[in-house]
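Q: Predict the assembly, please.
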Amino acid sequence: MRLVVASGKGGTGKTTVATALAQTAALTYAVRLLDCDVEAPNAALSLHPQWSSAVTVTRPVPRVDATRCTACGRCAEVCQFNALAVVGGGVLVFDDLCHGCGRCVWICPEQAMHEEPLAVGQIDAGYTPDGILLAQGLLRIGQPMGMPVLRALKRWPTAAALDAPFSDAESAHTLLEIRDAPPGASCPVVETLRGADAVILVTEPTAFGLHDLRQVVGIVQELGLPAWVVINRDGIGTAPIAEYCAEQGLPIALRIPLERRLAEALARGRPLLDAAPEYRPAVQTLLEQIVSGVAA
Amino acid sequence: MKLAISMTGESLDAPFDARFGRAAQFCLVEPESGVCELVANPARDASGGAGVQAAQLLASQGVTAVVSGAYGPKAWKTLHAAGIRALLAPDSAHTPTGREMLEQFCAGTLREADAASHDGHHGG
Amino acid sequence: MKEIVVLSGKGGTGKTSVTAALAHQAAHATAGRWLLADADVDAANLALLLDAQATVAEPFVGGAVAVVDADACSGCGLCEAACRYEALICDAGGCQVDAIACEGCGACLDRCPSGALALVPQTVGTCRRSETPYGALHHAHLDPGQENSGKLVTAVKRRARAQAEAEHCAGLLIDGPPGIGCPVIAAVSGASLALLVTEPTVSGREDLARALATVTHFGVPALICINKADLYPDGAQAIEDLGAARGIATLARLPFDLSMTEALAAGRPVTVQCPEAPISQALAELWRTLQARLAEVTTDSKT
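A: Predicted assembly structure:
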């Protein structure tokens, strides 16, 4: 089963909830947590995994064999991203505009082009002390596109990725995958949601929280996924989240009040359940609700 | 030789366009005769790599020098590879016309961009 | 014209609340007019704090997507094999395009033996311009699920710059997106100065480090503002140290102040809602310091 924790607005406590769920679920299931926020992965900061593997993520970029190239210009003509320029009798390739579609290679009448892998990020993986298998995607600085890293993370682990007996754990227990989504409501969020069974939407009762929640709910409904809402920092504002959720038929599964003590503990990088163990039963109930809700 | 000037309007007396990749159009002019031929810039609304596309357009038109306000790194590299001189309009309080740019070019007072003059507009 | 972009790395650090307060300061405590832009098109919230009125919207056409002519399609599946984004699903009945997955490369067009595919430009959001008590605001709305490639960010900035230049404005204040990818790169390019609003959390610091690296990578001078600094003083110090090690100054430590929340609920900048609050004083001071820094930066770049 695959759960996604998403939010729309950044900083509403997605990672706080995702890590609390993972820690609770790890008591019953074989849990793997995918940190899909490749521009700012944070789950590891509070779960302290022992990284045991690092896999480089690449995307293909075209290269030109100057001895075969006739500078006919076909490649630049078909490229929709202006990543190629044919001038002065040769081809210039702009890697950061290239989407790696391979069209230029295919179209070249002289077979003068081939592709080479360009490193754009990496996937780190390892077990946390709670026995959670955590994997995070990490986009390289200066690289514009996170999608290849996210796609690779979703396909992970590859055969060589981990020596740990992941498949054994899988057969011993039911496998639960939790994906910590990036903020926003664009492509990477959709990619994170694809193939999931249920969604937990973490929001806060501010005008910003509600505005951005609406955006994600639109996507979740289009994908037809069942969703539960967690209101974090309850009391921080008066935005009518409950009314909106009632309208949309979204159950509010958990409220976490705004407390300075919690904010201080989370700032230090402590997981929620460590700082406030009294939330354990509520998170357990949330998990059971979702698991039985999806099974039903 | 053929000179290209980035333009907002449709004649040499219209205001010059300080943008290269996003210029509305280019005026292609032979300095000896002063005859101007207009070419619309298909790259102005490109989703990315406008400078690359505009530079290729000028190369295909046989242009040997261009006057604009600024060049991104990809545009500059493409112009350089095409052997087109990238000239910079001087900073000024008012927007010059294309004709003023042509006069300054003929007088030899325009500075050549020796590298990209801005860091590019990503996704733009 | 000067351009300040406000960034954060991590979301939810108070970037937009800080930008709104700076917009108010720019309008009321500065010689010369400033214009405003919200470059966080994926979660555009600045308008909610600035009482945006008289909004003019127009559709924004982003990249293209492949479209299948069902009559011509034989369902052969060659396009599906060519597509690297799993955006085509074919069976004997024909082919379908997953418009969200499609990147508009056109590889499928080359392979289709029946000429059944075409690339069609797609509306992916709207560009907006509103009037606010603090000056004109250029913002946008990206339709949910669309690719935030930075194109819409660039379009917003282009419009804002064009108006600012035409009306001889002193500067442009931009609320940037979180993260370090394309939209951030688009928001940063061409800025005179980047102000990074962070919070003294472990994740705030980690994300700040990546955002700083990105900003520096693109050659834009950076400054730090620590929000809710007293929440974890050691964390705030660690952030100042991180900045100092890279030669980046921390301009302000803002207190954890519920006035910020009150202003957010009221939909106004905190400096308007609670002008006497310590955080409002700190933000007014931040704006003055920023002006001084901006003068230095612009002088440097001319020499």
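Chain A has two domains: 2-56+125-295, 59-118. The two ends of chain A are 13 Å apart (CA to CA).
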